[in-house]
Amino acid sequence: MKGLFKSKPRTPADVVRQTRDLLIYVDINWNTREAKREDKMQELSKNIRELKSILYGNSEAEPVSEACVQLTQEFFQGNTLRLLIVCLPKLNLEARKDATQVVANLQRQQVHSRLISSDYLEANKDLLDLLVSGYENMDIALHYGAMLRECIRHQSIARYVLESEHMKKFFNYIQLPNFDIASDASATFKELLTRHKSTVAEFLSKNYDWFFNEFNSKLLESPNYITRRQAIKLLGDMLLERSNSAVMMHYVSSKDNLMILMNLLRESSKNIQIEAFHVFKLFAANKNKPQEIISILVTNRNKLLRLLADFKTDKEDDQFEADKSQVIKEIAAL
């Protein structure tokens, strides 16, 4: 007789629906002190772990694509993503980690060859506002940051963040006193400014003045060594990207930018010096140098030539040596 009453195994869609019901319960009844809520929280954590197991597989089995499709469809049809993001601060640490992995995986799941997560986020852009402002809350900053980096894999979503007022906040987030959060914000900032080439080129052209003003004063001239090092590396990556060539020409025509780069060349840190050199060489190689750039280079010619003559990388680097010889030649010939 026992066999007659076995419960039917839950489908992936059932797990999503149950997770959604539990999230709604937790959201509404958060302020009630009751053992029932604790039970519901445990059940919710178990469900989120099961969602993760369906999407990623486990030690015994690989993920099944049909199950992943079912889960993804139900997840986005029923607004579960919104609930999971909004309720994340109420979850315990392990459930937060699992939820972050679930959200990350869903950004890559295709249904009928479409990334339906991108369509959902397009229609719910306020969720991105919530994820970005997560950097202001120490408890959830790293979870929201990881989710945000996965969401901006979609070009239209990255464009939304780039064009929003949030971009200005990143200059402060990168300098937060908490090292882990500042590093996470820096990783997101870099992703926004390097992943989608055409969108980035458009953003930098339209927002050149305020963006590089902030970038120079808050990051390149920051008192914090790590901030300066990451910023000069990112600047090189941006300016050497072919799609940003117009922005690069604009940047290397400014005497203020040149002065900042010359100061970075004199840093005691070899890492910063080398990254600064990769940007400085663009000023030297510019065939249409404005007169004020030429004047500064001529005034500082002897110092620059002495500095460059002693300039070496830790490992042998033929390309670096060739670039250095070319820069020395350009400056000597002015």
Automatic annotation (TrEMBL):
GO biological process: intracellular signal transduction
InterPro entries, sorted: ARM-like, ARM-type_fold, Mo25
Molecular function in Gene Ontology: protein serine/threonine kinase activator activity
Gene3D superfamilies in alphabetical order: Leucine-rich Repeat Variant (1.25.10.10)
Short name of one Pfam family: Mo25
Family to which this protein belongs: Belongs to the Mo25 family.
Protein name (Swiss-Prot/TrEMBL): MO25-like protein At5g47540 isoform X2
Name of the gene: LOC103713364
